[in-house]
Amino acid sequence: MSRALPADLDCIVAVEQVTDYLEGALPPHARTEFEQHLVTCPGCVTYLRQLRAQIAASSTLAEQRPVPEEVTQELLAQGMPELQRSLEQLRERRTRPLARPG
Predict the structure, then answer these.
(1) 5 part of a folded domain
(2) What is the pLDDT of residue 75?
(3) Which residues form the domain of 15?
């Protein structure tokens, strides 16, 4: 015979608590209630699995890093004069002091 689940823990509350659950930040009683809800709610189990998959996928994304200067120079040395001029113009703009209003 199954025990009655807390009536106030429905899907809306579970969705509100899922981040704290994943981070281990729910108090013990709230964690127990959350897990009891999962026992009877396949929709919330699916939602939890999807969030875990998103977290795992996003953790594999690398931060965009600037191209090392030696790579840039090597490309330029291989005959890209237009790129060289564009880079020089960008560098000039970055180092040029801003005009101050008079």
Answers:
(1) no
(2) 72
(3) 11-59
Rounded CA separation 40/3 (Å): 11
Among 29, 32, 34, which residue's Cα sits nearest to residue 17?
Answer: 34
Question: Rg (Cα) of the chain, in Å, rounded?
Answer: 27
Angstrom distance (rounded) from CA 47 to CA 18: 9
More confident position, 75 or 24: 24
71 and 42 in a common domain: no
Q: How many domains does the chain have?
A: 2
In which band, very low, low, confident or very high, does the pLDDT at 2 lie, cut at 50, 70 and 90? very low
CA 84 – CA 78 distance, rounded (Å): 11
| Same-domain status, 68 and 53 | no
49 and 15 within one domain: yes
Structure confidence by residue, pLDDT tens digits, 11-60: 888 889 999 999 999 999 999 999 999 998 998 999 999 999 988 888 77
Q: CA dist 19 to 38, 54, 90, 97, Å?
A: 14, 12, 43, 46
